[in-house]
Every structure is written in C-alpha cells, then in structure tokens.
Design a protein that fits this description.
four-stranded antiparallel β-sheet; alpha+beta
Length: about 140
C-alpha cells in the first residue's frame, strides 16, 4: 500500500518503440507492479514474460514513490513505430478492515486514502477517453 503523497496527474503514458529501446518510464503512482498494465500496439503484455517493472536503480520493483520503468525482456522489445501504452489499473478492493473498538492507525488510513485517490484517477483517465452525452441531455 502507498505511504506517499499521491499526485494529481495522468495515470497513463504512451510512447513509441524504435526497435531497440527497452525501457519506458511511468510517473503515475501505484501500490504494486501488478497495478501496471502494458500494451504494445493494443495487445496486453504479461509482466515477467514480456516485461519487468524496475526502479531507477534498475532493481526489480517500484521506486519508493510508486513510480517506475517498464523494461521489456529480450525478444519482446517494441518494434519501430509500435505504440507502447502504460496505464494504471489499481484493483477496486480493500485489504484493511476496521472493527468497532479496534485500532485505526494513521498508516492504514493513509494507505486506504492513497488507494482511493489512485482509483479515482484511474477512472478519470478511462472516462477521459469515453464518448459522453452533454450534461443537459435527458
């Protein structure tokens, strides 16, 4: 779970392959590497098979602020002019449970609020690509 300030920013990044670039960064924040979805020319790729998530020191996993790099594995490097789309897909679920009379810590509340903020950002990003009726359309 997140323990950092979540920034208001696009929860999707799009790049273009050149046949040799293996690394594509993302600056939106997530809780886990599994919260990142990667598409090449519209085809969903699989973490650990087609790519890995690494931090800025090239170690497996995310940076401490929840950002990172998608590093494609050998044989899976996006071709020249291939569109690489990286987006956040934080699951809509909770792991914390608050009980009557139980301890509520600032850390657990912070993690829950951060995750909710990420979820709202994910939906906002998705909705920005949708066709919408005018607000005054009955």
């Amino acid at each position: 779970m997140a323990t950092f300030s979540v920034n208001d920013q696009a929860r999707r990044t799009v790049g273009t392959g050149n046949g040799s670039n293996t690394t594509f960064g993302f600056s939106f924040q997530v809780n886990a590497t599994s919260d990142v979805k990667v598409y090449v020319d519209g085809t969903l790729k699989t973490e650990s098979t087609h790519y890995n998530i690494k931090d800025t020191s090239n170690a497996a996993g995310l940076n401490t602020d929840g950002t990172g790099n998608v590093v494609f594995t050998s044989g899976n490097i996006p071709a020249n002019a291939a569109v690489v789309t990286i987006l956040s897909d934080v699951p809509a679920s909770r792991t914390s449970v608050y009980t009557a009379g139980g301890n509520i810590t600032a850390t657990s509340l912070e993690a829950d609020f951060d995750t909710m903020t990420m979820l709202i950002g994910d939906r906002e990003e998705r909705d920005s690509r949708a066709l919408l009726a005018p607000v005054d359309d009955p």
